[in-house]
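Example record

Each entry pairs one chain with its bound ligand, nickel (II) ion.
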Amino acid sequence: MTWFDTHCHLDDEHNPDGVEAALERARQAGVTTFLCVGVGGLAQAEQALALSERHSDVFASVGVHPHDAARDGQLNFERCWAHPRLLAVGEVGLDYHYNHSPRETQVEVFRQFIALARRAHKPLIIHTRNAAEDTLQILKSENARDVGGVIHCFSEDRAFATRALDLGFYLSFSGIVTFKTARAIQDVAAWAPSDRVLVETDSPYLAPVPMRGKRCEPAFVVHTGAHVAGLRNVEQADFAALTTENARRCFRVPVAGS
Ligand code: NI
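Structure tokens for the complex follow.
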């Protein structure tokens, strides 16, 4: 198997027990590539980049989570954008469920980071919750199609998916897709075009069935992948290869050794 966990948080704060063992367990389970999302401030950004320097199968992304927009929106991440192991800008976006930062600030920071992704020539990792319409409109008005990227932890419906796909975005499925109640998400996972589907853990959050309730780690992407393969009626190994190829294309992963 060759799974690609396109979204995991591997900084010290999220992993008090250390990440090395978790990475090793994931490799044993068949995970070949990790995209480590460094959000929560400059320390997390630096840690994601440092981890990607230490492991040839780990890459990094840096951004400001909408929760942190008010606190971190003006931080200077300049040093990160040219880093050779940085694949993406994010996660960035809107979260109107918790509103940890005022909506206007979230919108402002979101727009800023789309512009930044364009300057850095990097795809975006988008977080959206209870903010479907604003997210799509901002992506459209900021011409996010030029940089592309992924709707991470996809938890919307087919109508949203259609519009995101039209903007050139990929859809990434997390453990949520394995939850019994997630009918609309399962519908999208079964239907989405095969060249636009990705998988992720969003660890340490959202452990998939049958690991639900445990602290999520990258090895669990195998369960999410198996579930989506079942929904799509394809072999797990084929789906692992397909989603890994999609992720490499989406994030323009450099070929090893080059
Ligand atoms: Ni995340």
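The pocket of nickel (II) ion is lined by residues 7, 9, 37, 91, 202 (CB under 6 Å).
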